[in-house]
Amino acid sequence: MFSQISAPLSHTSSSLTATAALSLRPYIPIPKFRFCTFNPFKSQKRHSSSVLSMDGTSSPSAASSIESISDDLKIQSLEKNNVNDYTQNTVSSDNNNSSISQSRVKLKLEELKWDNSFVRELPGDPRTDLIPREVLHACYTKVSPSVEVDNPQLVAWSDSVAELLDLDPKEFERPDFPHLFTGASLLVGTAPYAQCYGGHQFGMWAGQLGDGRAITLGEVLNSKSQRWELQLKGAGKTPYSRFADGLAVLRSSIREFLCSEAMHSLGIPTTRALCLVTTGKYVTRDMFYDGNPKDEPGAIVCRVAPSFLRFGSYQIHASRGKDDLGLVRTLADYAIKHHFPHLENLSRSDSLSFSTGEGDDSFVDLTSNKYAAWAVEIAERTASLVAKWQGVGFTHGVLNTDNMSVLGLTIDYGPFGFLDAFDPSFTPNTTDLPGRRYCFANQPDIGLWNIAQFATSLSAAHLINEKEVDYAMERYGTKFMDEYQAIMTKKIGLPKYNKQLISELLKNMAVDKVDYTNFFRLLSKIKTDPTIPEDELLFPLKAALLDIGKERKDAWTSWVKSYLQELSGSGISDEERKTSMDSVNPKYILRNYLCQSAIDAAESGDFEEVRRLLKVMERPYDEQPGMEKYARLPPAWAYRPGVCMLSCSS
User: Fold this and answer.
1) Cα 555 to chain centroid, rounded
2) How far is CA 237 from CA 271, 317, 423, in A?
3) pTM assigned to the model
4) In the chain, which residues have pLDDT < 70?
5) What does the sequence similarity comment in the record state about its family (predicted)?
6) What is the b/e burial string over 80-116, where b = at least 16 CB atoms within 10 angstroms of the residue's CB?
7) Which residues are marked as active site?
8) What's the pLDDT at 93?
9) Do residues 516 and 422 make contact, with C-beta atoms less than 8 angstroms apart?
10) Per-residue b/e over 271-306, b at no fewer than 16 CB within 10 Å?
């Protein structure tokens, strides 16, 4: 067994000094674990660790190459098997603006090909009742949707997700569609179940959690042999519901539906959403946990992903000791078979063997243990995902281990938010306000902390050893820094990374509470014309630099002069740079106040704003003439309770 990740991180993270927070983040721990016997499912104190600085300086044992190990693993599989498309079972987010092919397969709902490998290949709960209880020695419980409906209505839908399933878009027009996607009627071929998993919540082991209101209908295989799980969120009680009702309200369902699709269009790996349906019934919720519950319209989102497996899916079985440790291996084999097939039967390769220190035993060969290769790939995918979040200013809000996908997807949109005024300590979750554990600046460290908990479970099941755990952690840090530096370099249009310039920029933005999205979009309008007078250098940024005095103007002018000096030697024209910067700096993000406007209209029975907002967010990098209002700064009313700060109640 090994100790939890050694970098300090708590509700008042000592690793987040003021300078570190403003530099976002100057340090990402590269762990040098101190190994000891412990219970990984209880909160532990951690020790100091070495760090990787923003200038790319790594610990001595870091790999000499910062390229992705998981890419090397896939390439080896590609060469070995002569497969032209080794990513057919992985998520792609590079087809944001693809048009629907006229020649593609278009199926009716009854023609979807259901496979349901999860319930076929994994051990299930012998009981099928809904009584809240511990579910032992099982990965799932078979359970059907039980939500009550009364004239359910289709609020919104995603044509691009329908395309993933080969589903004919005309199917959305069916009068029985809302009944089918509330679960009131079941499609033939489905095998509904709720998944069993556990997790660390706010740093503490919470035991069994599971799908308390999400019911997976099954898996659809499309014409490309891609596997897509369809899951109804808010469809009723399961054995994992504990004291809850298993339902969801329109407010939270709109937010999840819109953000799932908005994140995909931003190019960020995420679960998707096929449709959003009202139930026609009301659900009682105490939104602020202040003793003032109210009735809200009920709704259900149909979520779609290759898999909804989480870190907690493995943690729960490892936490139960020897009787369930075999399930960790069984579930790992299942994930590798269906979602990481390139890790099967790897051949010996010097390029995938690494020294982790001094001595003959300080050696990791990823080709000799598929579980180690798998852990490294998950670490890298997670690091890449978090780096992308930081790039667009997205804050998840509830980064518990049960909300972390083993596929490296953004999953479980509860309280979330995009940065408006730049604030490294921003959190969209009122529950997190006392310590801001999951604030924007903490996300990189939290990702590493969560990877450590996942790796602990694999180690407990004897799938990976201590050196392999160390290496997975190390790869997280290296991959995050590589991706984050590349993203920030592209955001400001530089040919190479400049630590000082980016750090100073983020400090200035934090001091003046500059709008994160609008600033980077405006920055592309800067001209490298040496004849521009000094007092006019800030003109392209004036819409973002509001109400700043002379001292701050001088600070910004100084930064712009340094920026222009760096640009002048790049050899890139202003036009080329603007095109490149605009392709990575979105004009439109799903701001909380935009969501709230759509929610207010929908709760009055008008769904058009939800649909309009979806269309805008499908093209976040385009100018979209006539839609400029969706790029505006939040109005004053956006800062009232319940708009920019949201609890977990949904």
Assistant:
1) 35
2) 22, 22, 38
3) 0.88
4) 1-67, 77-103, 288-290, 350, 357-361, 640-650
5) Belongs to the SELO family.
6) eeeeeebeebbbebeeeeeeeeeeeebbebeebeebb
7) 402
8) 38
9) yes
10) bbbbbbbbbbbebebebeeeeeeeebbbbbbbbbbb
